[in-house]
Amino acid sequence: MGATPERREVTELEALKALAHPRRQRILRHLEVEGPATSATLARSLGLNTGATSYHLRELARHGFVEDFDDHEAHGRERWWRAVRRDLRFPPRGEQSAEVRPVVDEMTRLVFAADLQDFLDANTAPEAEDETDMPYSRGIIHVTPAELGEFFEEYIALLNRYKRTGPLPDGARAVQTRLFTYRSPVTGAGTNLPGTDEPGAAES
What we know:
CATH class of the domain at 6-137: Mainly Alpha
Strand order of the largest sheet: 2-4-3
CATH topology of the domain at 6-137: Arc Repressor Mutant, subunit A
Low-confidence stretches: 198-204
Pfam families: HTH_20
Domain HTH arsR-type: 14-95
InterPro entries: ArsR-like_HTH, HTH_ArsR_DNA-bd_dom, HTH_MetalResp_TranReg, WH-like_DNA-bd_sf, WH_DNA-bd_sf
CATH architecture of the domain at 6-137: Orthogonal Bundle
Oligomer: single chain
Protein name: Transcriptional regulator
Mean pLDDT: 85
CATH superfamily of the domain at 6-137: Winged helix-like DNA-binding domain superfamily/Winged helix DNA-binding domain
Number of strands: 5
Shape: globular
Keywords: DNA-binding, Transcription, Transcription regulation
C-alpha cells in the first residue's frame, strides 16, 4: 500500500487563486486520475489548446501542485507532467481573511460541481449496470469539534493505506472517494437526542 503523503497547509492567496480556476481544476483532476501526461495529451483530452494547457501547467507548477519530470528512456524528449502527491489542507473558514474566503469558496464550488458531475456520469454510464461494488453512505454523527478532527484524521489515514504508487494488482482500478462534513441544521449543540434525557447521550 502507499506511504503517507507529505502534509501541506495552503494559506497563500496566490496559491489558492491558482486552484480556484476551472481549467486548472480539470487539469489537476486528469493528472490525479489518469496519471502523468504531456501538455498535448491534456489538450486533446480536455478540449483545450496546447498553449493554454502549457500556461496552466506552469502556473500550477509555480505553486507546487504539479511537476514536470524527465524520463527520456520512456518518453523521449517530450515534457511530461504529474500531480504532486500531497495531503493538502486549507485554512478553516473562521481563519480565512476577507481576501481568502471568496477564493476558497470558488475553489470549493468548482471541486464539488465536478465531483457531482463525475458521480452522475459514472452512475449513468452503460457499464454502470454491471457495477455491484460501489458503496454509498450518508449519515449523522454527534461529535465535539475535537472528535470531528480525530474522525477526519482517521479517515485520511485509512485512505492513505489504500493509495498505491507502484504496479497495480490485477483488477485494481481508480475509484473516487470523497468525504465532506457540514453542521446539521436539525440538531444543534446542547440539544437532547431523541429518546434521551441528557445532551449527547447515544440513541438506543
